[in-house]
Design a protein that fits this description.
- The protein is an alpha+beta fold.
- It has six helices and 18 strands.
- A hairpin with a 5-residue loop joins β1 and β2.
- α2 packs across α6.
- The longest helix has 23 residues.
- The chain is globular, with a radius of gyration of 19 Å.
């Protein structure tokens, strides 16, 4: 199979396959080049010649019924008891120093860990497993020659809508559910000040971006939403656009949001590129279907893994504020990494 993407929307019982039958996906260096385009977008955190924005042409579009699959329970490995590794400790100290001096208001620190299996696991089986495990999330599996193979399970909408009606969300703050909390949607969670502040930073940024494109937008929230065994704070924005043919310009303004980068946007972005131990590649970029009139559904690429045969590169990150602690942030990334670790563990059985 040539370049393809298969994705499932939250709570859907079917997936959609997009396949480009000839040639390679179009490559772009700027989000603004997506104006008026249609196809499945795969965008990295940092655009470069080696990691361009990719647009998979929808030569074939198929609906795939997922059916029901028995998922055997598997015990969570207690990674959170492991101390932070040396590279994370170095990065945290470096990042946090910038917050203490007041240079940044927020900055996101990401990390990558490697998992292996004795035999390669069919990526489609991992996709189906993720669909069964995480009904609340957008699940996607993408394969192109340039990007490699990526599996994503994300709760964060970057841009969604068609015609003149659009929406986006501000998602920040993370807490892990335990015990009786796992029965519901996180209604009993009490959010600490740090998470409330982090979510407000993201919300303010998105409102300021939207003001550049429309005078007609409405904000609701924040509210608690569940994603796997985690909960986040979410605010919803609905808005109108006078011209849906310039979505690339809006994407340029939005990406990367403070939820995956920080504030000030350009300064934190440059700092991350120069200082983070592991390049993010297509983690914390965005992906999904771009179609200004027929329906656009773009999601931030969180809870990702890059699949290379029997090797799996898992990515996760967390937002740092001035009062963040290394142990707290490390455990947050461990909780997020468990999303993909669980898929691998189940398929090893």
């Amino acid at each position: 199979m040539s370049a393809y993407a298969i994705y499932r929307f939250p709570h859907a019982d079917h997936a959609t396959l997009i396949q480009q039958t000839e040639g390679e996906p179009a490559e772009y260096q700027f989000c603004s080049e997506l104006n008026g385009k249609q196809g499945f977008v795969v965008a990295p955190f940092e655009v470069s010649a080696q990691q361009p924005i990719l647009l998979i042409r929808p030569d074939i579009v198929e609906t795939i019924e997922l059916g029901r699959q028995v998922i055997h329970s598997v015990e969570n490995r207690n990674h959170a008891t492991c101390p932070p590794d040396s590279s994370y400790t170095i990065d945290f100290a470096n990042y946090h120093a910038q917050l203490e001096t007041g240079l940044f208001r927020k900055i996101v620190l990401a990390r990558c860990v490697d998992e292996e299996s004795e035999e390669p696991i069919d990526p489609m089986e991992l996709f189906r497993c993720a669909c069964m495990l995480y009904p609340r999330m957008f699940i996607s599996l993408v394969s192109t020659l340039k990007s490699g193979v990526w599996l994503t399970a994300t709760p964060e909408i970057l841009l969604e809508g068609k015609g003149s009606d659009w929406r986006t969300i501000a998602l920040a703050g993370t807490m892990k559910l335990a015990g009786d909390q796992l029965i519901g949607e996180g209604e009993t969670v009490c959010w600490p000040t740090k998470d409330i502040q982090e979510q407000r930073i993201v919300t303010t940024f998105i409102a300021e971006c939207l003001e550049q494109f429309t005078g007609d937008f409405h904000e609701e929230g924040p509210r608690t939403v569940r994603a796997a065994n985690l909960v986040h704070l979410r605010s919803d924005f609905s808005f109108t656009l006078p011209d849906s043919q310039h979505l690339g310009d809006l994407l340029h303004a939005l990406h990367p949001t403070p939820a995956i980068c920080g504030l000030p946007k350009r300064e934190t972005f440059n700092f991350i590129i120069q200082n983070e131990h592991t390049p993010r590649r297509y983690y914390s970029g965005f992906m999904g279907m771009l179609d200004p009139e027929g329906g656009t559904h773009l999601y931030v690429s969180l809870r990702c893994m890059n699949i290379e045969g029997s090797h799996y590169h898992l990515y996760a990150g967390g937002g740092l504020l001035k009062d963040s602690t290394e142990e707290q942030e490390w455990q947050e990334t461990e909780a997020k990494l468990e999303t993909m670790r669980r898929c691998i563990a189940i398929k090893k059985m």
